[in-house]
Design goal:
This protein is an all-alpha fold. It is 67% helix and 0% strand. The chain has 17 helices and no strands. Helix 1 runs antiparallel to helix 7. The longest helix has 28 residues. The radius of gyration is 22 Å and the shape is globular.
Length: 387
């Protein structure tokens, strides 16, 4: 556990050190490089015992790499017996055939893609890259991202597509997201974002969305029964539960805090304009967190959306960040101090939250005890964490 806390502190050290760099370009590059080293060093060289799904993907790669027929066939061949999406099958096949048969390749490659993609996405939207990366790490979102390797590739498509959504180019967004579904089916849910963005931001539309969300949360198991998918393993798990999952409740509270704080600071700064892309994305994320209480597997959708919610919150809470309509009279010393205090309080809350979950619910992620992968050992037992 001490290793994890030291790891957390290194991000703060990067953020603090960068404040002493005068050049904005050098500061930005320093934070990107330092955060890359920290993220890729931690996740890209983790043992397969770290993060729940790591051994599963490792084992899948290991078994396929042993078949001679698999090495000889086209990388675009569809294997109907594999339960993974076609896009992921192609990536694994390519890596095995042309890169390396070592099963750790998929861990290394996915970690590299995720690290580069996240830092690219964050750096295009904020200046304080290290502190925002730190916040996303403390939220537990990076644990989920690096754990769900198939979804990691879908997430990269979403990051690219989101830029087009910001530029009001919904058709390009939709096309890119359809490619994302080739890597993880949860990407289908994000096709609703362009439709939400068409709505006006008013109490009526927000109320209707919340009513539909609550109704869907109440009826989701009945809807699945009507559709005849009661044999689904996730359905079976949820129907056996006698109480709401604690993880989903905590995520819902986190999203409520993020959304509520954004609204509070927005009105406190007397801002009038609202970015529709971020508003509806954050609200959709909150709605998903409500439904997740009734059907936990939907938490995967917020793996895409939580970084955006945190980025928007950190914009509001960064005293040096200036909104388009913000005037010098608005950015008074007291308001800057308020934003700094709220940022500190938010990071402290995240730190306490993740400390508690790692201590009492380590099975949610299996981050501790942390260890690096032993490349000298030729055999690694990968039948871990099966339910």
């Amino acid at each position: 556990m001490i290793i994890i806390y030291i790891y957390f502190l290194l991000f703060l050290a990067v953020a603090i050190t960068s404040q002493f760099i005068g050049s904005k370009t050098i500061k930005r590059n320093f934070e990107i490089v330092a955060c890359f080293i920290l993220l890729f060093g931690f996740f890209g060289f983790r043992d397969i015992t770290v993060l729940n799904d790591t051994p599963h993907y490792y084992g899948f790669y290991y078994k396929l790499a042993r078949y001679k027929s698999y090495l000889e066939e086209s990388i675009f061949a569809i294997n109907p017996y594999d339960r993974f999406e076609y896009g992921y099958q192609v990536i694994v096949h390519f890596l095995i055939k042309y890169v390396s048969r070592d099963p750790y390749t998929i861990i290394w490659f996915s970690s590299l893609v995720l690290t580069i993609g996240n830092l690219w996405f964050i750096s295009k939207r904020v200046d304080n890259i290290a502190i925002v990366t730190f916040a996303i790490l403390l939220s537990g979102n990076f644990y989920t991202q690096y754990c769900l390797i198939r979804q990691a590739f879908a997430l990269m498509f979403f990051y690219i597509a989101f830029g087009y959504l910001e530029k009001n180019r919904p058709w390009i967004y939709t096309i890119i997201m359809l490619f994302a579904t080739l890597f993880h089916y949860t990407a289908f849910a994000l096709l609703v974002l362009p439709l939400l963005k068409l709505l006006k931001i008013n109490r009526r539309n927000i109320f209707i969305l919340f009513v539909l969300t609550v109704a869907f949360a109440i009826l989701i198991l009945q809807i699945m029964s009507i559709l005849g998918i009661t044999h689904n393993s996730y359905f079976q798990q949820m129907i056996k539960r006698d109480k709401a999952p604690l993880a989903a409740i905590l995520d819902c509270l986190l999203l409520a805090m993020i959304y509520g704080t954004c609204i509070f600071v927005h009105y406190k700064m007397r801002l009038k304009e609202v970015d529709k892309t971020y508003f509806w994305t954050c609200l959709f994320s909150f709605c998903i967190s409500i439904i997740t209480i009734a059907f936990l597997p939907l938490f995967r959708i917020n793996t895409y959306l939580l970084p955006i919610a945190i980025i928007q919150l950190m914009r509001y809470l960064t005293a040096t960040y200036t909104f388009k309509e913000e005037k010098s009279s608005v950015t008074s010393f007291k308001q800057k101090e308020l934003r700094r205090f709220l940022q500190f309080a938010f990071l402290l809350f995240l730190f306490v939250r993740i400390s508690v979950t790692m201590t009492f619910r380590n099975e949610w992620n299996h981050v501790t005890p942390y260890s690096f992968y032993d490349f000298s050992d030729r055999y690694h037992y990968y039948h871990l964490y099966w339910d």
